[in-house]
Amino acid sequence: xxxxxxxxxSAVGDGNVHLNVLPCCDKGAxxxxxxxxxxxxxxxxxxxxxxxxxxxxxxxxxxAVQRPPLTVLKQAIDPHGTINPGCVFDMP
Length: 92
Known about the structure:
The protein is α+β, with helices and mostly antiparallel strands. It contains 3 helices and 2 strands, in the order ββααα. It starts with a strand and ends in a 15-residue tail after the last helix.
């Protein structure tokens, strides 16, 4: 994608290559990156988490069966929702 900035690095511990694509100001670029990730069924994040930026992508890719255990875990660790509210997924 013309105008985008690419950063590639590798983690020795897991043997994976991490490619960060920082799209230019074009909002369509984000859709292209998301489509490529979905096509190859690759991770949208690594050890750095989901946060707010990738929250919609996670919601679209997370199998329904995996949501309840994650919700239970989040509620157990953060019963009052004070740790990074609004990140990863919304609590009921």
